[in-house]
UniProtKB/TrEMBL annotation:
It is found in: Cytoplasm, Perinuclear region; Golgi apparatus membrane. It catalyses: N(4)-(alpha-D-Man-(1->3)-[alpha-D-Man-(1->3)-[alpha-D-Man-(1->6)]-alpha-D-Man-(1->6)]-beta-D-Man-(1->4)-beta-D-GlcNAc-(1->4)-beta-D-GlcNAc)-L-asparaginyl-[protein] (N-glucan mannose isomer 5A1,2) + UDP-N-acetyl-alpha-D-glucosamine = N(4)-{beta-D-GlcNAc-(1->2)-alpha-D-Man-(1->3)-[alpha-D-Man-(1->3)-[alpha-D-Man-(1->6)]-alpha-D-Man-(1->6)]-beta-D-Man-(1->4)-beta-D-GlcNAc-(1->4)-beta-D-GlcNAc}-L-asparaginyl-[protein] + UDP + H(+). GO terms for molecular function: alpha-1,3-mannosylglycoprotein 2-beta-N-acetylglucosaminyltransferase activity; manganese ion binding. It is a single-pass type II membrane protein. One of its GO terms (cellular component) is Golgi membrane. The cofactor is mostly bound to the substrate. Keywords: Coiled coil, Cytoplasm, Disulfide bond, Glycosyltransferase, Golgi apparatus, Manganese, Membrane, Metal-binding, Signal-anchor, Transferase, Transmembrane, Transmembrane helix. This is Alpha-1,3-mannosyl-glycoprotein 2-beta-N-acetylglucosaminyltransferase. Initiates complex N-linked carbohydrate formation. Essential for the conversion of high-mannose to hybrid and complex N-glycans. Its main location: cytoplasm.
Amino acid sequence: MGRHNIHFVSSAAIDREGQNLFCEMKCLTFTYSQYVERICCSLPFFVWWISFLQCANCTLSACNDLFLQVFRPGKIQVQLDQLEQELVEQGRANAKLLSSLRELKEKLLQARNDTQGQPPKDAPVIAVLLFACNRVTVKRPIDQLLQYRPSKHQFPIIVSQDCNHGLTTKAILDYGDQLTLIKQPDQSDIPLVGKEKKFKGYYKIARHYGWALNKVFFELNYDTVIIVEDDLELSIDFFEYFLALYPVLKSDPTLFCISAWNDNGKTGLVGDDPELLHRSDFFPGLGWMLTKDLWLEIHHNWPKSFWDDWIRQPEQRKDRACIRPEVSRTKTFGKIGVSNGLFFEKHLKFIQLNKKFVPFTSKDLNYLKKDNYDVAFVKEVYGSPTITLNQLLKGNLETKGAIRITYGSKDHFKTIAKKLAIMDDFKSGVPRTGYRGVVSVVYKGRRVYVAPPADWKGYNKSWS
């Protein structure tokens, strides 16, 4: 038989292919059988095998010898065993290294958490006192407090619970050491007679407030407290707002609180200016900051009910004011409560909550101090053109800036307030949000000052 014109593929080429696949196998951890299968499926192998079969001079014995020479299965097995051992040892080393890295990561995270938001040594510590009773939705304001607070050291959270409601207690305890839970111990009934019975809830609230503020100021020994309730939603710059106004409160004796709330803060009644802040003679509440000095002054006469109206009385206010925002930094979502939801449906649910972060701590807020504020305020209000209510409602106005509507009596103010959809009630003669008798609102995009005459002599206590 004549020799065919055949091109043989050298064993060296096959060996190189095997070595390449062996390197791949080291990366992919192939088994021996997978390795041989990979070689057998390679193109050089088939070329060689076809050529081999066409060789008339090849015997079966020579075929076997050549196959063993090319593939050297014994040598490959040794290499595989060696590689397997190396992989086992490498796996152990990797596991040990991974364990060390995880341990180091945990230590770094713990160290970062311990120092996260650590305030400067001279920065104030302001406790947040959250009042809770039987709403498991207390988780909502707690979640926001934890989300927005810049430092757990500077703003420790204390939840004071009344009512002994088990599910609410559990919801609070779920937060662990992120907050402190204190419980009002006096759960005795409050005996009331006649019409007062329907106000029992307000009596319990006053009792709870008095106990908790004594606890925080006198036992836990905090100097300043921000009060929030279990049905409040918070603005993104809630802490920034209070932190920036803390030095203003401490340095101006004509102030007694900082509030996050605008009683006339409904959508459409406020300007598109979240940076705008006001002084107010009307105590707003609903997210407010007070100092230990104020508590030392008023705690001996703490009322048995309606504590917020009591604070608004001249005997407690003493001609002092609060700071309030144009756009509220809190909003209540508690439809069901001691007010039976009526006030919520008519008013509270329409309050606009600020959604923009304002860097108040980088701004000069000294303009809010009385000596600076009053001069600019009187000039702005009484420098604005005077119009009648009918002119405003008709919209026939030549001026584009702020305007003023003058009221001369309680009933006159109420008429104006109802037309402008603002709060029309008084407490000891002070209208809601009023400062020096002036209520500042926005009506159809225009700033309106509902103001007493320029020769205003002070609040008439009979207007209540």
